[in-house]
Design a protein that fits this description.
Order of helices and strands: HHHHHHHHHHH
Pfam family, one: COX15-CtaA
Keywords: Heme biosynthesis, Iron, Membrane, Metal-binding, Oxidoreductase, Transmembrane, Transmembrane helix
Number of domains: 2
Membrane topology: Multi-pass membrane protein
Structural class: mainly alpha
Transmembrane segments: 30-50, 114-132, 144-162, 182-205, 226-245, 257-283
Largest sheet: none
Number of helices: 11
Strand content: under 5%
Helix content: over 70%
InterPro entries: COX15/CtaA_fam (IPR003780), HemeA_Synthase_type2 (IPR023754)
Low-confidence stretches: 1-16, 251-256
């Protein structure tokens, strides 16, 4: 940012719509918290992909909003295994599964669920602390409360998705699987939470875009005409993978590929999609339009030395 623009921002800092108003220390703490939360959601998406690729998502046949302890004894494991034996997946796909194989898929799904609940605690505790200390303004508070509510709803969406896979398929020729529409809703919600957290973290650390002149702003606007549609396409493409993974009407070649894709490559593919989306978020955030106050302080053309 040019010297003139920086001076104008410093002189009018009380009128800027800053999300954090308690100084640099609070700004740094909230940035670390939000970026860590976004990274946690990133890991949740990857873990969810691994859970699906290992066909572990239907191993837990019940759901508790507050969570529950895993089986702690052989008797507890046998009880859980008997519950799973009543599911369509066991009857049609995993009839030869033993207790050790069941433990693996159970732990995968349990880890996925508990990782999500841990994220809720990790988000809620600092949020309440920052609210009490007055580190954030109403605008940021409402935005973060909305993201927290969306995160809580994600657990309900996840069970709604899993429940579809516990129902009897319409025909004996179909394998039990979750509804692709519910899977897409679950994945879309996760992407929305991630994008909201990452975008908010960027806004906290960079309230104004890097701008040196009016000409700079006009140039950024031209680039954004292409960056925004590309970012939307990237997001839609990533979410559409849920339909490919969950729909029975894929061609034979694609279904065969999906059946034998290595877990590591499948997880890397999903991580790559989310990484690309991250770069598009960063680009569009950098190209966003400055505030009216900053625009009034900018020279027509940046000064050159």
């Amino acid at each position: 940012m040019s010297t003139v623009a920086a001076s104008a921002c410093k002189e009018n800092k009380d009128t800027l719509k800053l999300l954090v108003t308690a100084g640099p220390h609070a700004q740094k703490a909230i940035c670390i918290w939000l970026f860590a939360s976004a990274a946690w959601v990133f890991s949740m998406v990857i873990l969810g992909g691994v859970t699906r690729l290992t066909r572990s998502g239907l191993s837990m046949t019940d759901w508790n909003f507050t969570g529950s302890l895993p089986p702690l004894s052989d008797e507890d494991w046998l009880i859980e295994f008997e519950k799973y034996k009543q599911s369509p997946e066991f009857k049609r796909v995993n009839r030869g599964m033993n207790i050790d194989d069941f433990k693996f898929i159970y732990w995968m799904e349990y880890l996925h669920r508990m990782w999500g609940r841990a994220l809720g605690i990790m988000f809620a505790l600092p949020f309440s602390y920052f609210i009490r200390r007055g580190y954030i303004n109403l605008r940021l508070g409402v935005r973060l409360a909305g993201l927290f509510a969306l995160g809580g709803g994600q657990g309900l969406i996840g069970w709604w998705m899993v429940k579809s896979g516990l129902e009897e398929p319409p025909s004996k020729y179909f394998q039990p699987r979750v509804s692709p529409y519910r899977l897409a809703a679950h994945l879309t919600s996760a992407f929305a939470i991630y994008c909201g957290l990452f975008w908010t973290a960027l806004t906290v650390v960079m309230p104004e875009p890097p701008t040196e002149s009016i000409a700079w702003v006009k140039g950024a606007a031209k680039v954004k005409r292409f960056a925004l549609p590309v970012g939307i396409i990237v997001g839609i493409t990533a979410v559409s993978g849920a339909f490919v993974a969950g729909n029975d009407a894929v061609t034979l070649g694609i279904s065969t590929l999906l059946s034998y894709v290595p877990v590591s490559l499948g997880a890397a593919h999903q991580a790559g999609a989310l990484t690309l989306l991250t770069f598009m978020l960063l680009l569009n955030h950098t190209l966003r339009r400055p505030s009216t106050m900053l625009l009034k302080s900018l020279p027509a053309v940046a000064k050159t030395i």
